[in-house]
Amino acid sequence: MTNPVLEVKGLHQYFEKGTPNENHALKGIDLTLEQGEFVGIIGGNGAGKSTLLNSVAGSLPVTYGQVKIGGKDVTYQSVEARAKLISRVFQDPKQGSAPLLTVEENLSLALKRGSWRNFWRSGVKRNERKMFKERLASLNLGLEDRLGAEIGLLSGGQRQAITLLMATLNQPELLLLDEHTAALDPQTSATVMALTAQIVAEQHLTALMITHNMADALKYGNRLIMLDHGQIVVDVRGEEKQNLTVPDLLELFKERSGAAMTDDAVLLS
Ligand SMILES: Nc1ncnc2c1ncn2[C@@H]1O[C@H](COP(=O)(O)OP(=O)(O)OP(=O)(O)O)[C@@H](O)[C@H]1O
Q: How far apart are CA 143 and CA 158, in angstroms?
């Protein structure tokens, strides 16, 4: 049997531990993701979503618990060491690509796992260019004709679509999506979400996606977890998830957490 892609066991995160401002942000999270699971994470403000993603990515040292990727214990590995296994797309379309490099240069740098040394040594090879053109064409945004354009000159949505492509060029073990469509207008957000689902399905990727949009969390992905005060209160998948509506989800949240969801960003989405 193959190892799960991600195993988080007994994860606790404290901020300012031992001070009057102590904040127990994650309270014993257990989460296992199998290959091909596309999991939406939803929860109110301060529920612990970013803290969980940061703990998995390695940008936050773990207070207690363990994080394994592909069976390997990475709990004490740096972000850089984990970057071989994990790709992350952030909310800000400006994060994740170099504005003064062209589209093809950014893609080439991503293919070389961000190694400037390898990038400067070989530049963009002809076979790479052909592959980038094909991949960009599959997005249906006309970006295959913009290979030579500086990425900083593209719109937020175009840039985020390319960042997504960059993040998945090397087929990461785990893709982390950190509210990656939240800064886009609704129409562009829908386009980038559909592209995300397309890429995740085509490459059979395993992904963990924070969103404030309940409808997106229900529409996309094959599993959905809800966090509340540092704990997983809802974990639904497959058919059970497919049959849920937004009101069902709010009711489930209330039932499990003992209080109604109050986050406006979630409620108004
Ligand atoms: N660097 C930090 N220092 C101190 N407290 C922090 C820090 N980061 C997060 N917290 C606290 O930890 C708790 C969880 O925060 P987190 O950002 O993970 O929530 P979230 O679910 O991502 O919320 P939001 O939807 O508002 O982004 C909150 O109480 C927050 O104030």
A: 8
- Secondary structure element (H or E) that encloses residue 37, with its range: none
Helix (H, G, I), strand (E, B) or coil at 121: helix
ipTM over 0.85: yes
Domain count, the chain: 1
Of all protein residues, the one whose alpha carbon is nearest to atom 26 of ligand 1 is 45
Report which ligand 1 atom has the smallest distance to the Cα of 263: 25
The candidate with the shortest Cα–Cα distance to 266, out of 38, 41, 43, is 43
Instruction: Tell me, yes or no, whether 144 lies in a domain.
Output: yes
Does residue 1 belong to any structural domain of this protein?
A: no
- Residue 72 sits in a domain whose CATH number is 3.40.50.300
The C-alpha atoms of residue 209 and residue 193 are separated, in whole angstroms, by 11
Q: Is the CB of 25 inside a 6 Å radius of any atom of ligand 1? A: yes
pLDDT, tens digit, for every residue of 240-250? 999 999 999 99
Inform me whether the pLDDT recorded for 264 exceeds 80: no
What is the dihedral angle through the alpha carbons of 178, 100, 116, 53, rounded to the nearest 10 degrees? -10
Pairwise CA distance, residues 142 & 240, whole Å: 37
Give the pLDDT band (50/70/90) at residue 105: very high
pTM of the model: 0.93
Print the domain residue range for 14. 6-268
Q: List, for residues 178-211, the tens digit of each pLDDT value.
A: 999 999 999 999 999 999 999 999 999 999 999 9
